[in-house]
Amino acid sequence: MQHTEVERELRTLMLSGLAGDSVAYRALLERLSRHLRAFLRRRLQGWPDDVEDLVQECLLAVHNQRHTYQSDQPLTAWVHAIARYKLIDLLRAKSVREALHDPLDDDSDLLADEQTGASEARRDLGGLLQTLPDRQRLPIVHVKLEGLSVAETAHRTGLSESAVKVGIHRGLKALAARIRSKSP
Questions:
Q1: Is 44 exposed, middle or buried (0-12, 13-18, 19+ CB in 10 A)?
Q2: Tens-digit pLDDT profile for residues 85-142
C-alpha cells in the first residue's frame, strides 16, 4: 500500500471515529499500532523491548488528543509528531537513568575523604575515651573496640566480670552524655 493510500485510509477511519463510529475507531487504532510499531522499530533498534511500550503510549496520546486533530491536515504527520515527542521523552529518561549508572571518574577524592573522616573519628573517640577513668575506659576499649570477651577483659584488667560489664555500661553512658553536651 502506498503512503497516500495509507494516509487516506487512516484519515477516513479517524474522521469516522471522531463522528462516533466505534468500529472505525477500533480499526484506526489497530492500523495505527502496526504503523507506529514499524515507525518506532526503525528508530529504537538498540532497544526493541521499549517499542511496544512506546506504541501503547502513542496510542493513548492519540486517543487523549484526538480532539486536537485538524481534519485538513495529514493524519500521519500528526501521529508522527506525537510519536516523536514520546520517543524524545523515552530517550531523555534513558539518558538520565544511564547517567546515574556512570562510574565516578575520580573516586580517589572520595576514598581520601573516607580515610580522613575515619582518622578524625578515631582521634575524637580516643580523646573522649581519655576522659573516662580506667575502670570504664579499659573495658570499653577491650570489649567494644578490640572484640575481647568479658572474661578475657576481666583477666587482662584484674577486674571481675561484673565490674567489666558495669564499667562498659557506665562508660558508654558517660560518653553519650559528653557527646550530647557538645552537640549544638
A1: middle
A2: 998 888 888 776 666 665 555 555 555 555 555 566 666 777 788 888 999 999 988 8
Distance CA 25, CA 20 (A): 8
Rounded to the nearest 10 degrees, the angle between the axes of helix 161-182 and helix 108-130 is: 120
78 pLDDT higher than 70:
yes
**Residue ranges of domains in the chain:** 3-100, 125-182
Residue 34, number of CB atoms within 10 A of its CB: 10
Q: Strands, E, within 52-108: which ranges?
A: none
What is the fold, at CATH topology level, of the domain defined by 3-100?
Rna Polymerase Sigma Factor; Chain: A (1.10.1740)
What is the enclosing helix (H) or strand (E) of 99? helix 75-100
Please give the helix or strand (H or E) that residue 88 lies within, else none. helix 75-100
